[in-house]
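FYI - complex with adenosine-5'-triphosphate, inputs then prediction.
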Amino acid sequence: MNIILEAKSIYKSYKNNSNNILTVLKDVSLTINKNEITVIVGASGSGKSTLLHILSGLDEPDSGEVLFLGNNIHKLNNEQLSIFRNKNIGFVFQFHHLLPEFTAIENVAIPYMVDGKSLKSALLKAEEIMTLVGLSERLHHKPAELSGGEQQRVAIARALINNPSIIFADEPTGNLDSVNGESIHQLFLKLKNEMNMTFVIVTHNSDLIKLADTIFEIKDGIVQKKI
Ligand SMILES: Nc1ncnc2c1ncn2[C@@H]1O[C@H](COP(=O)(O)OP(=O)(O)OP(=O)(O)O)[C@@H](O)[C@H]1O
Ligand SMILES: [Mg+2]
């Protein structure tokens, strides 16, 4: 067994405006294996994004533990948690969240500089990763000057630059046509096979689901392993 991340008995509720409590995750336990593509499926509103945010340290559970290589990430203070995320976790959202005023290569370089590296080395590294994702010809375009698929590849390059242990992706191709979506799927497969990357992906896309080594389904707050 090769477990990289483990969730133990996670509970998460939200309170709405009229003070009703909605329990989204009920006693969720799961393990994520290294160098696998794990896919999380479930209906809209079932709690997939909530679970992804808790697994990646972007949000806190009400109770339960998330262990990264055996260490409870929710025991870290805010500063330790953001250092942990910047070093170990890459996150790809449905909408890319690139910074519009910076070029593609600068967007990719920023997390590397946050990790304490110089601008020069960050730009060199960013160019290498941009080449890996097939964007060596678009280094100096701003996000608005890129296609949707290219923007998403920049977001993936940005997620990759600090050589994370796990990439979390929330509907990474939900916003793309099938050709652009397929090129992102093939990129994920290449990163898994050639760089031993681990992925945890929320998706409705049946082509992406086909690449999964493990599938979890969320329904009524309960997570079940399907494969
Ligand atoms: N901050 C919040 N406050 C109150 N309720 C919330 C909050 N965030 C999410 N919810 C509710 O929790 C439930 C789960 O939300 P979540 O975003 O995790 O669903 P999802 O499975 O990702 O859905 P989708 O497929 O539509 O993205 C939803 O019913 C949502 O309305
Ligand atoms: Mg969601």
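Residues 185 and 208 are 6 Å apart (CA to CA). The pocket of adenosine-5'-triphosphate (ligand 1) is lined by residues 14, 16, 22, 24, 42, 44-50 (CB under 6 Å).
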